[in-house]
Design a protein that fits this description.
The protein has helices at about 5-10, 20-35, 35-50, 55-70, 75-90, 90-110, 110-130, 130-150, 150-170, 170-190, 190-210, 210-230, 230-250, 255-270, 270-290, 290-310, 310-330, 330-350, 350-370, 370-385, 390-405, 415-420, 425-430. The chain is mainly alpha-helical. Helix 2 (about 20-35) packs antiparallel against helix 3 and helix 5 (about 75-90) packs antiparallel against helix 6 (about 90-110).
Length: about 450
C-alpha cells in the first residue's frame, strides 16, 4: 500500500461490508476512474441498497456518488448525497471530506461566503484528524476564493501549501487540480509565463492519470493565456482542441467556458457573427448550470463584442444583466467588469461625464481584484474619456507600465511580439510615446 493510497482513502476499511456490496462499490470506483459517471452512479446506488452496511461505508459511498452527480452537472442530487455523507457519518474524517465537497459546490454556484465557512470548518476537522487530503483540498478551495476576491497574494500562499501537501503524498490528480488553480491565479496577476508553466504541468499530470475532464480544462486555460496576449491563432487552436476533448469526455460543465473563449477568439480575429454564436451558446450554458461567475465573464465579453460593433441596444441589455450578476456575486472583480462595460457603453452613447464616473468606479473595484490584462485596458479607456490632458497622460503612462510588466517576463519571443504588436497595445504605447524596442 503506497503513500497515495493512505492519503486518498483516509482511514477507510471495508470490514463488515458484505461481499456483494464491496463488489458493487469496487465496480463503481472503476467506472468512476474511467469517467463513466452514469455507470458509476448505478453501481454506487446498488452498493447503498444492501441492508446493514456499516455507517462509515455508506457515508463514503454517498460522497463518491455525489461527486459523480456533480461531474455530470446534477447539482441537486450531488448536494443531497454530500449532505447524506455528512450526516450519516460518525467520523470527523469523513465529515471533513463531505464538507470540502459541499464547499466546492457552493463555490461553483457563486455562494462564496458559504463556501468559505465550509472550507474553514473542513480545514479544522482535517487538522484534527490529520487528514492531508482534506487539508489540501480545503486550502485549495480557500485559495480559489482568495483569488476571486482579489487577494492573489494570499491565494498563492494557500495554493502553494496545498501543492506541497499533495506532492508529499504523491497525489497526482490533486496536484493537477492545484496547479490549474495556481495557473489561474498567476493569470489573474498578469504573470503569463508562470501561468503557462503551471497549466502545462497540470496538463502533463492530469494526462498521466487519464483525467480527460481536467485535461480539457488545462488545454482551455493554456489557450486563455495565449488569448490574453493576443496570440489569437494559438488560442483558437487550443480552444478548438479543448472543445473536442470536453465533448468527448462529456464534460458538460466545461463546455460553456470553452465556448466563451472560442467566441472571444473569433470576435478578436474579425469573425464577429461566428463569435456571437459561441458567446450566446456559452451564456445559455452557464445559466443552465447556474454558474454565476462564468455568466458574468460571458456577459462582459458579449458587452464588449456588441459595443465594438455599434450594437448599442443589445449592449444596454447585456450590461444591465452583468451589473445584476455582479451584485449577486458580491465580489470586486465582477463589480469592476460591470462598471467597466457600463462606462464604455456610456462613452459610446456620448455621455462622457457619466462614463468617466463609471470608469472611476470600475477603477476603485479593480485596484485589488482585477488582472493586469484588464487594468491596462481600463486605464487606456479613462485616458480617452477624460477631458483633462494631464490626467489622460497619467492614465496612459500607467497603462503603458502595466503593458511593460506583462511583456517583460515573457521568455517566448514570438509570444512577446504577438502581444506588443497587437493593435490595442500598440495604440497605448504610441500614444504614451514609448518605443517598442525599449520594452
Amino acid at each position: 500500500m503506497g503513500m497515495s493510497d493512505t492519503i486518498s482513502s483516509g482511514q477507510f476499511s471495508l470490514a463488515g461490508v458484505s461481499a456483494a456490496a464491496v463488489t458493487a462499490f469496487r465496480e463503481g470506483r472503476l467506472a468512476s476512474s474511467e469517467q463513466q459517471f452514469f455507470k458509476a452512479i448505478q453501481y454506487y446506488t446498488e452498493a447503498l441498497s444492501f441492508d446493514r452496511t456499516p455507517v462509515h461505508f455508506r457515508a463514503r459511498v454517498f460522497e463518491y456518488r455525489g461527486l459523480c452527480f456533480w461531474l455530470i452537472g446534477e447539482f441537486k442530487a450531488a448536494e443531497k448525497d454530500y449532505h447524506e455523507s455528512l450526516t450519516t457519518s460518525d467520523s470527523i474524517d469523513q465529515m471533513a471530506r463531505a464538507r470540502v465537497r459541499l464547499g466546492e459546490l457552493a463555490d461553483f454556484r457563486g455562494e462564496y461566503e458559504m463556501a468559505a465557512a465550509l472550507y474553514k470548518e473542513a480545514l479544522q476537522e482535517g487538522n484534527l484528524s490529520e487528514n492531508l487530503l482534506v487539508i489540501g483540498r480545503a486550502r485549495r478551495g480557500l485559495g480559489i476564493l482568495d483569488r476571486r476576491q482579489g487577494n492573489t497574494e494570499r491565494a498563492l500562499s494557500q495554493l502553494t501549501q496545498a501543492l506541497a501537501i499533495f506532492r508529499q503524498g504523491g497525489e497526482t490528480r490533486e496536484q493537477g487540480r492545484v496547479l490549474t488553480s495556481l495557473g489561474r491565479t498567476r493569470q489573474a496577476r498578469g504573470e503569463y509565463q508562470q501561468a503557462l508553466a503551471a497549466h502545462r504541468e497540470a496538463y502533463i499530470l492530469l494526462e498521466s492519470v487519464n483525467d480527460r475532464w481536467r485535461v480539457a480544462q488545462a488545454v482551455n486555460d493554456i489557450g486563455e493565456c495565449h488569448q490574453a496576449l493576443y496570440d489569437i491563432e494559438k488560442a483558437h487552436e487550443h480552444h478548438q482542441h479543448a472543445l473536442q476533448l470536453a465533448t468527448k469526455a462529456e464534460a458538460e460543465l466545461l463546455i460553456p467556458e470553452i465556448k466563451r473563449n472560442l467566441g472571444v477568439d473569433l470576435v478578436e480575429s474579425g469573425r464577429y457573427e461566428e463569435g456571437l454564436v459561441y458567446l450566446q451558446a456559452a451564456l445559455q450554458g452557464t445559466r443552465q448550470h447556474g454558474n454565476r461567475e462564468h455568466e458574468a465573464l460571458t456577459l462582459y465579453q458579449l458587452a464588449r463584442a456588441y459595443l465594438h460593433h455599434g450594437v448599442d441596444g443589445q449592449a444596454v441589455q447585456v450590461v444591465l444583466a452583468l451589473t445584476h450578476v455582479a451584485e449577486q456575486l458580491n465580489a470586486d472583480r465582477y463589480r469592476a467588469l460591470a462598471a467597466f462595460a457600463h462606462g464604455e457603453l456610456l462613452y459610446h452613447q456620448g455621455r462622457k461625464a457619466d462614463a468617466l464616473s463609471e470608469l472611476n468606479l470600475a477603477m476603485l473595484a479593480a485596484q485589488t481584484a482585477v488582472d493586469r490584462g484588464i487594468l491596462w485596458k481600463l486605464h487606456a479607456a479613462i485616458s480617452h474619456v477624460t477631458e483633462n490632458e494631464e490626467i489622460a497622460a497619467v492614465h496612459l503612462n500607467i497603462a503603458a507600465e502595466f503593458i511593460r510588466q506583462t511583456a517583460e517576463p515573457l521568455q517566448d519571443e514570438r509570444l512577446r511580439n504577438c502581444f506588443l504588436n497587437a493593435p490595442p497595445v500598440m495604440a497605448v504605447l504610441q500614444a504614451a510615446d514609448i518605443n517598442l524596442n525599449h520594452i
